[in-house]
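Thread: "does anyone have the structure for this chain?"

Original post by V.I.:
We have the sequence but no experimental structure in hand. Need at least a predicted one for the grant figures.
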Amino acid sequence: MNQADHPVVALHGVHKTYRLGQHVIPALQGVDLTVQRGELLALTGPSAAAKAPS
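Reply from O.Q.:
Generated one for you, tokens below.
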């Protein structure tokens, strides 16, 4: 298998929750994402909406 066969980004089963007082807000539940070499990916959203990698 050569390097071109491997994804440049691969996420599996991603979960993210936020707390708002006593409430737990699920934002992502079991998200999978694969981006292959040559594919384009755009993350959009309002300013300060946590789009940058952290």
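V.I.: this helps a lot. The beta strands are 9-20, 23-35.
O.Q.: and The longest strand covers residues 23-35.
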